Amino acid sequence: MLDVRRLRLLHALSVHGTVTAAAEALHVTSPAVSQQLAALEREAGVALVERDGRKLVLTRAGHVLAAHTQLVLDQLAAAEADLASLRTSVSGVVRVGAFASVALLLPRVIQVLRSAHGSDVELFVHEMEPEASLPALRRGDIDIAVIHSYNIMPRSLPTSCEAFELFVEPVNVALPLSDPLVQQDSVDLSVLAERPWIMPRTDASCHELTQRACGAAGFVPRAQAYCDDFGVMCGLVEAGLGVALVPSVARRPGVALRPLKQQVFRTVSAVVRHRADGQPAVRAVLEQLRQV
Protein backbone atom coordinates (compact mmCIF):
# COMPACT_ATOMS: atom_id res chain seq x y z
CA MET A 1 0.00 0.00 0.00
CA LEU A 2 1.40 3.39 -1.01
CA ASP A 3 1.50 5.99 1.76
CA VAL A 4 -0.61 9.06 0.88
CA ARG A 5 1.66 11.37 2.87
CA ARG A 6 4.63 10.22 0.79
CA LEU A 7 2.59 10.58 -2.38
CA ARG A 8 1.99 14.22 -1.42
CA LEU A 9 5.76 14.72 -1.31
CA LEU A 10 6.18 13.19 -4.76
CA HIS A 11 3.39 15.40 -6.08
CA ALA A 12 5.00 18.48 -4.50
CA LEU A 13 8.31 17.65 -6.18
CA SER A 14 6.58 17.30 -9.55
CA VAL A 15 4.82 20.66 -9.09
CA HIS A 16 7.60 22.74 -7.54
CA GLY A 17 10.57 21.21 -9.34
CA THR A 18 13.10 20.96 -6.50
CA VAL A 19 13.33 19.18 -3.18
CA THR A 20 13.90 22.50 -1.42
CA ALA A 21 10.79 24.11 -2.94
CA ALA A 22 8.71 21.00 -2.23
CA ALA A 23 9.89 20.99 1.38
CA GLU A 24 9.02 24.68 1.80
CA ALA A 25 5.56 24.15 0.29
CA LEU A 26 4.79 21.32 2.72
CA HIS A 27 6.58 22.88 5.72
CA VAL A 28 9.05 20.05 6.19
CA THR A 29 12.83 19.80 5.84
CA SER A 30 14.63 18.85 2.64
CA PRO A 31 16.26 15.75 4.24
CA ALA A 32 12.80 14.60 5.34
CA VAL A 33 11.56 14.86 1.74
CA SER A 34 14.50 12.84 0.44
CA GLN A 35 14.04 10.17 3.14
CA GLN A 36 10.31 9.83 2.51
CA LEU A 37 10.79 9.65 -1.26
CA ALA A 38 13.29 6.82 -0.73
CA ALA A 39 10.71 5.04 1.42
CA LEU A 40 8.06 5.58 -1.30
CA GLU A 41 10.40 4.00 -3.86
CA ARG A 42 10.70 0.94 -1.64
CA GLU A 43 6.91 0.74 -1.41
CA ALA A 44 6.52 1.17 -5.18
CA GLY A 45 9.34 -1.23 -6.03
CA VAL A 46 10.63 1.06 -8.78
CA ALA A 47 12.87 4.13 -9.03
CA LEU A 48 10.77 7.29 -8.87
CA VAL A 49 13.53 9.92 -8.80
CA GLU A 50 17.03 10.23 -10.16
CA ARG A 51 19.91 12.68 -10.09
CA ASP A 52 20.30 15.21 -12.88
CA GLY A 53 23.48 16.96 -11.85
CA ARG A 54 22.78 18.35 -8.39
CA LYS A 55 19.03 18.23 -8.93
CA LEU A 56 16.60 15.43 -8.09
CA VAL A 57 14.12 14.83 -10.91
CA LEU A 58 11.29 12.38 -11.55
CA THR A 59 11.87 9.25 -13.58
CA ARG A 60 9.28 8.11 -16.11
CA ALA A 61 7.73 5.96 -13.37
CA GLY A 62 7.79 8.98 -11.07
CA HIS A 63 5.84 11.06 -13.60
CA VAL A 64 3.27 8.28 -14.00
CA LEU A 65 2.78 7.97 -10.25
CA ALA A 66 2.65 11.77 -9.81
CA ALA A 67 -0.17 11.96 -12.37
CA HIS A 68 -2.14 9.29 -10.50
CA THR A 69 -1.39 11.09 -7.24
CA GLN A 70 -3.07 14.23 -8.57
CA LEU A 71 -6.27 12.25 -9.05
CA VAL A 72 -5.97 10.76 -5.56
CA LEU A 73 -5.47 14.18 -3.98
CA ASP A 74 -8.41 15.58 -5.93
CA GLN A 75 -10.63 12.81 -4.58
CA LEU A 76 -9.40 13.38 -1.03
CA ALA A 77 -10.11 17.11 -1.37
CA ALA A 78 -13.63 16.30 -2.64
CA ALA A 79 -14.18 13.95 0.31
CA GLU A 80 -13.04 16.63 2.75
CA ALA A 81 -15.40 19.10 1.08
CA ASP A 82 -18.34 16.70 1.34
CA LEU A 83 -17.67 16.13 5.04
CA ALA A 84 -17.26 19.86 5.65
CA SER A 85 -20.63 20.49 3.98
CA LEU A 86 -22.31 18.45 6.71
CA ARG A 87 -21.19 20.94 9.35
CA THR A 88 -23.76 23.56 10.29
CA SER A 89 -21.34 26.16 11.62
CA VAL A 90 -19.78 28.64 9.19
CA SER A 91 -16.13 28.97 10.17
CA GLY A 92 -12.64 28.52 8.82
CA VAL A 93 -9.91 30.10 6.74
CA VAL A 94 -10.61 30.82 3.08
CA ARG A 95 -7.68 31.74 0.81
CA VAL A 96 -8.61 33.78 -2.27
CA GLY A 97 -6.41 34.52 -5.26
CA ALA A 98 -7.76 37.48 -7.24
CA PHE A 99 -6.47 39.75 -9.99
CA ALA A 100 -5.90 43.41 -9.12
CA SER A 101 -8.97 45.17 -10.52
CA VAL A 102 -11.32 42.76 -8.71
CA ALA A 103 -9.18 42.52 -5.58
CA LEU A 104 -10.12 46.19 -5.04
CA LEU A 105 -13.72 45.02 -4.48
CA LEU A 106 -12.82 42.47 -1.80
CA PRO A 107 -12.81 44.89 1.17
CA ARG A 108 -16.62 45.07 0.75
CA VAL A 109 -16.79 41.27 0.88
CA ILE A 110 -14.65 41.21 4.02
CA GLN A 111 -16.88 43.79 5.74
CA VAL A 112 -20.04 41.78 5.03
CA LEU A 113 -18.42 38.52 6.18
CA ARG A 114 -17.29 40.10 9.43
CA SER A 115 -20.72 41.56 10.00
CA ALA A 116 -22.37 38.16 9.45
CA HIS A 117 -19.81 35.80 10.97
CA GLY A 118 -17.46 37.90 13.08
CA SER A 119 -13.99 36.39 13.20
CA ASP A 120 -15.27 32.85 12.49
CA VAL A 121 -14.50 33.23 8.77
CA GLU A 122 -10.99 34.46 8.08
CA LEU A 123 -10.19 35.63 4.57
CA PHE A 124 -6.65 35.65 3.18
CA VAL A 125 -6.26 37.53 -0.11
CA HIS A 126 -3.44 36.94 -2.59
CA GLU A 127 -3.26 39.29 -5.58
CA MET A 128 -2.49 37.18 -8.64
CA GLU A 129 -3.44 36.95 -12.28
CA PRO A 130 -5.37 33.88 -13.51
CA GLU A 131 -2.18 32.48 -15.02
CA ALA A 132 -0.91 32.13 -11.43
CA SER A 133 -4.12 31.62 -9.45
CA LEU A 134 -5.41 28.59 -11.38
CA PRO A 135 -2.22 26.56 -10.85
CA ALA A 136 -2.22 27.70 -7.20
CA LEU A 137 -5.79 26.41 -6.85
CA ARG A 138 -4.81 23.11 -8.45
CA ARG A 139 -1.92 22.76 -6.00
CA GLY A 140 -4.19 23.52 -3.05
CA ASP A 141 -2.38 26.77 -2.18
CA ILE A 142 -5.65 28.74 -2.38
CA ASP A 143 -9.34 27.83 -2.03
CA ILE A 144 -10.91 30.23 -4.55
CA ALA A 145 -9.40 31.68 -7.72
CA VAL A 146 -11.16 34.78 -9.06
CA ILE A 147 -10.32 34.84 -12.76
CA HIS A 148 -11.31 36.62 -15.95
CA SER A 149 -11.78 35.46 -19.53
CA TYR A 150 -12.90 37.20 -22.70
CA ASN A 151 -15.37 36.16 -25.37
CA ILE A 152 -12.56 36.34 -27.93
CA MET A 153 -10.11 34.62 -25.54
CA PRO A 154 -11.77 31.71 -23.70
CA ARG A 155 -9.84 30.27 -20.76
CA SER A 156 -9.71 26.55 -20.00
CA LEU A 157 -10.02 25.31 -16.41
CA PRO A 158 -7.85 22.71 -14.70
CA THR A 159 -9.42 19.28 -14.29
CA SER A 160 -11.46 18.71 -11.12
CA CYS A 161 -12.29 22.43 -10.88
CA GLU A 162 -15.56 24.25 -11.49
CA ALA A 163 -16.38 27.90 -12.16
CA PHE A 164 -19.18 30.13 -10.84
CA GLU A 165 -19.88 33.21 -12.93
CA LEU A 166 -19.80 36.41 -10.89
CA PHE A 167 -20.51 39.04 -13.53
CA VAL A 168 -20.00 39.96 -17.18
CA GLU A 169 -18.87 43.43 -18.22
CA PRO A 170 -18.06 45.07 -21.55
CA VAL A 171 -14.54 45.98 -22.57
CA ASN A 172 -14.45 49.67 -23.52
CA VAL A 173 -12.12 52.07 -25.22
CA ALA A 174 -10.86 54.69 -22.76
CA LEU A 175 -10.71 58.21 -24.19
CA PRO A 176 -9.87 61.68 -22.85
CA LEU A 177 -13.03 63.69 -22.17
CA SER A 178 -11.98 66.16 -24.88
CA ASP A 179 -11.81 63.49 -27.59
CA PRO A 180 -14.46 63.94 -30.36
CA LEU A 181 -15.18 60.19 -30.26
CA VAL A 182 -16.73 60.68 -26.82
CA GLN A 183 -19.85 61.96 -28.61
CA GLN A 184 -20.41 58.56 -30.21
CA ASP A 185 -22.43 55.79 -28.56
CA SER A 186 -19.87 53.19 -29.62
CA VAL A 187 -16.46 53.24 -31.29
CA ASP A 188 -15.14 51.28 -34.25
CA LEU A 189 -11.59 50.27 -33.33
CA SER A 190 -10.39 50.80 -36.89
CA VAL A 191 -10.63 54.60 -36.44
CA LEU A 192 -7.98 54.31 -33.70
CA ALA A 193 -5.41 52.64 -35.94
CA GLU A 194 -3.15 55.70 -36.02
CA ARG A 195 -3.51 56.58 -32.35
CA PRO A 196 -0.86 55.80 -29.73
CA TRP A 197 -1.94 53.11 -27.28
CA ILE A 198 -1.54 52.54 -23.56
CA MET A 199 -0.90 48.79 -23.35
CA PRO A 200 -0.87 46.24 -20.54
CA ARG A 201 2.48 44.55 -20.00
CA THR A 202 3.34 42.00 -22.66
CA ASP A 203 3.01 38.91 -20.41
CA ALA A 204 -0.56 39.79 -19.36
CA SER A 205 -3.61 38.20 -21.00
CA CYS A 206 -5.21 41.64 -21.42
CA HIS A 207 -2.23 42.58 -23.63
CA GLU A 208 -3.09 39.66 -25.88
CA LEU A 209 -6.73 40.78 -25.79
CA THR A 210 -5.79 44.26 -27.07
CA GLN A 211 -3.62 42.75 -29.78
CA ARG A 212 -6.41 40.43 -30.93
CA ALA A 213 -9.14 43.08 -30.87
CA CYS A 214 -7.02 45.54 -32.81
CA GLY A 215 -5.89 42.81 -35.19
CA ALA A 216 -9.52 41.95 -35.94
CA ALA A 217 -10.00 45.64 -36.76
CA GLY A 218 -7.11 45.48 -39.22
CA PHE A 219 -4.15 47.03 -37.43
CA VAL A 220 -1.39 46.47 -34.88
CA PRO A 221 -1.59 48.92 -31.95
CA ARG A 222 1.40 51.26 -31.55
CA ALA A 223 2.35 51.18 -27.88
CA GLN A 224 3.17 54.50 -26.25
CA ALA A 225 3.33 53.07 -22.72
CA TYR A 226 3.14 49.76 -20.87
CA CYS A 227 1.76 49.41 -17.36
CA ASP A 228 0.15 46.85 -15.06
CA ASP A 229 -2.75 48.77 -13.52
CA PHE A 230 -5.98 49.83 -15.25
CA GLY A 231 -6.14 52.91 -13.01
CA VAL A 232 -2.70 54.00 -14.19
CA MET A 233 -3.69 53.29 -17.78
CA CYS A 234 -6.74 55.53 -17.42
CA GLY A 235 -4.59 58.23 -15.83
CA LEU A 236 -2.29 58.19 -18.85
CA VAL A 237 -5.32 58.33 -21.14
CA GLU A 238 -6.63 61.34 -19.20
CA ALA A 239 -3.24 63.01 -19.68
CA GLY A 240 -3.58 62.55 -23.45
CA LEU A 241 -0.78 60.02 -23.90
CA GLY A 242 -2.94 57.56 -25.80
CA VAL A 243 -6.06 55.38 -25.80
CA ALA A 244 -6.60 51.99 -24.14
CA LEU A 245 -8.97 49.06 -23.81
CA VAL A 246 -10.23 48.64 -20.25
CA PRO A 247 -13.14 46.85 -18.51
CA SER A 248 -16.01 48.83 -16.99
CA VAL A 249 -14.67 48.28 -13.46
CA ALA A 250 -11.77 50.62 -14.40
CA ARG A 251 -14.11 53.62 -14.77
CA ARG A 252 -12.72 56.83 -13.23
CA PRO A 253 -13.37 60.60 -13.45
CA GLY A 254 -11.58 62.38 -16.25
CA VAL A 255 -11.86 59.49 -18.71
CA ALA A 256 -14.76 58.50 -20.95
CA LEU A 257 -15.42 54.81 -21.58
CA ARG A 258 -17.19 53.92 -24.79
CA PRO A 259 -18.23 50.38 -25.85
CA LEU A 260 -16.81 48.85 -29.00
CA LYS A 261 -18.89 48.27 -32.10
CA GLN A 262 -17.07 44.93 -32.34
CA GLN A 263 -18.33 43.92 -28.88
CA VAL A 264 -15.85 42.38 -26.45
CA PHE A 265 -16.93 41.14 -23.02
CA ARG A 266 -15.03 40.09 -19.94
CA THR A 267 -16.46 37.35 -17.73
CA VAL A 268 -15.32 37.28 -14.11
CA SER A 269 -15.69 33.92 -12.35
CA ALA A 270 -14.83 32.29 -9.06
CA VAL A 271 -13.20 28.89 -9.51
CA VAL A 272 -13.00 26.22 -6.80
CA ARG A 273 -11.93 22.61 -6.67
CA HIS A 274 -14.74 20.16 -7.36
CA ARG A 275 -17.43 20.26 -4.65
CA ALA A 276 -15.44 22.70 -2.51
CA ASP A 277 -18.40 25.09 -2.74
CA GLY A 278 -20.12 22.73 -0.29
CA GLN A 279 -17.78 23.83 2.50
CA PRO A 280 -19.73 26.36 4.62
CA ALA A 281 -16.94 28.97 4.80
CA VAL A 282 -16.13 28.72 1.09
CA ARG A 283 -19.83 28.86 0.25
CA ALA A 284 -20.24 32.01 2.38
CA VAL A 285 -17.39 33.73 0.53
CA LEU A 286 -18.78 32.68 -2.87
CA GLU A 287 -22.21 34.06 -1.97
CA GLN A 288 -20.71 37.43 -1.10
CA LEU A 289 -18.55 37.50 -4.24
CA ARG A 290 -21.73 37.07 -6.29
CA GLN A 291 -23.12 40.21 -4.63
CA VAL A 292 -20.14 42.41 -5.58
From TrEMBL:
Q: Name one GO molecular function term.
A: DNA-binding transcription factor activity
User: One GO term of the cellular component aspect?
Assistant: protein-DNA complex
Pfam families, from UniProt?
HTH_1, LysR_substrate
Organism superkingdom: Bacteria
Question: Which residue ranges does the record assign to the HTH lysR-type domain?
Answer: 2-59
Coiled coil feature spans: none
Q: Work out whether the entry's keyword set contains Transcription regulation.
A: yes
Keywords tagged on the record? DNA-binding, Transcription, Transcription regulation
Keyword Protein biosynthesis attached:
no
What family does the database annotate? Answer: Belongs to the LysR transcriptional regulatory family.
What name appears for this protein in its UniProt entry?
A: LysR family transcriptional regulator
